[in-house]
Design goal:
Keywords: Membrane, Transmembrane, Transmembrane helix, Transport. It is found in: Cell membrane. This is Major facilitator superfamily (MFS) profile domain-containing protein. The chain folds into 2 domains: about 180 residues, Growth Hormone, Chain: A (Up-down Bundle); about 210 residues, Growth Hormone, Chain: A (Up-down Bundle), CATH 1.20.1250.20. About 75% of the residues lie in helices and about 0% in strands. α3 crosses α5.
């Protein structure tokens, strides 16, 4: 099917519905604790967090699967694995089996996580690429929001039945299988390939962006970790109020995703520094709030700004990666992102001890300042890159003109 058709694009974007679906069952932790009284609270919490470990490992391994299976079959394998393992807890009430199935769910998502982004950067360019990248982020937010709401609904029928939400994976599996046709000669051993495929590699710019993303996500995730604590410490709300506040972060991400292409047309490379600055300012609003309404406002500002910055990093990695290495480079970026989220509590604890700032408000202050500094750094680096690209283009044009004159 033509890559410019609606069905092709919709099917390609649909696989992002389950990219961030792992935490959708987090609200079930107290109910699971009752079913497994012999397990500690931290062990039960692993059921919600262990998919991240699966994603982290299989994002790195996905490139091996791509080489032998091709991109389409790798996506279909990942979706099938996520579907089957996601539904296992519905039928088996055994802690070890459920924990293993959750890891395998993450493994399935990890197989196609990088491809959900790199396929867009490989197949499209310019404003069309920007629009689809925004929609890709929106699809993740939509999937997360819908599945979280469905978990709440299915809870009345027992916590195990809440895992039925992962049956939604059938939709992208069917759409991708039926309507997405990728370029031929994807496999290394493809006898029909006439040209030798270049080996994928990672350059210094990709590693630098990975570390940059690690820090950004580690600082941003403070909003998830500390909002409930902030409400209690300041006496302006209860922990359960944090759920609806954080929900606003996801919802505004959907809105930004839909209009991302148009926003990118206006702001171009300024999207990243403006986004990081906005997150930092949102954090400052949150820490200075004296009501739930102001905390929600700060969360919305941060969510909007984050939805600007995140897609741009995925677009950028496709531009700076070595030739034919977009998928590997995207995988490296995803490793940085997952490490950033995983290490966020550790990094926050380290900063708190280093600067002697221990309250939730202090955490928002440190992260806010850090994000504002990162905004300034990104502006400088992107400006230097733009100038360098312009000089390179001038040199190439000069060489071309000289050859034509000769």
């Amino acid at each position: 099917m033509n890559k410019n058709s609606f069905l092709f694009k919709a099917s390609l974007l649909s696989i992002s519905l389950v990219l961030v679906a792992g935490p959708a069952v987090s609200s079930l932790i107290p109910l699971m604790q009752q079913s497994f009284p012999d397990q500690s609270t931290s062990s039960i919490e692993l059921i919600a967090t262990v998919p991240n470990f699966g994603i982290l490992i299989f994002v790195l391994l996905s490139n091996i699967f791509v080489k032998f299976l091709g991109k389409k079959k790798t996506v279909l394998l990942g979706l099938s694995l996520a579907l089957i393992s996601g539904l296992i807890p519905v039928f088996i009430e055994n802690y070890t089996v459920i924990l293993a199935s959750r890891f395998m769910f993450g493994a399935g998502v990890g197989l196609f996580n990088a491809l959900a982004v790199s396929l867009i950067t490989e197949l499209y360019s310019g404003d069309e690429q920007a629009s689809l990248m925004g929609l890709q982020g929106a699809m993740g937010s939509i999937g997360s929001t819908v599945m979280t709401l469905l978990v709440g609904y299915f809870t009345k029928f027992g916590w195990q039945n809440s895992f039925l939400v992962y049956a939604i994976t059938v939709l992208p599996l069917a759409l991708f299988a039926l309507f997405v046709t990728l370029p031929a000669a994807e496999k290394l051993d493809d006898p029909t390939a006439n040209t030798k495929k270049e080996k994928e590699s990672v350059n210094g710019a990709t590693i630098g962006l990975m570390l940059f993303a690690l820090i950004v996500y580690a600082l941003f995730f403070v909003i998830m970790l500390k909002t409930a604590t902030l409400l209690v410490e300041t006496g302006i709300g209860k922990p359960e109020t944090a759920a609806s506040i954080l929900g606003s972060v996801t919802i505004v991400g959907i809105v930004v995703g839909v209009f991302y292409g148009q926003i990118f047309k206006w702001l171009k490379q300024l999207v990243l520094p403006i986004g990081l600055l906005g997150i930092g300012l949102g954090f400052i609003i949150i820490l200075s709030a004296n009501s739930v309404a102001i905390v929600t406002l700060g969360a919305i500002v941060s969510g909007l700004a984050f939805s600007l910055a995140a897609p741009f990093m995925f677009m950028l990695v496709g531009q700076i990666a070595p030739k034919n290495s977009a998928n590997l480079a995207t995988g490296v970026l995803l490793v940085g992102i997952n490490l950033g989220v995983f290490l966020s509590p550790t990094i926050n604890s380290f900063l708190s001890k280093t600067f002697g700032m221990t309250t939730a408000s202090d955490s928002f202050l440190m992260s806010g300042i850090g994000l504002i500094l990162l905004s300034a750094c990104s502006f400088i680096l992107l400006s230097v890159q733009k100038k360098k690209n312009a000089q390179t283009a001038i040199q190439e044009d000069t060489i071309k003109i000289r050859k034509e004159d000769a």
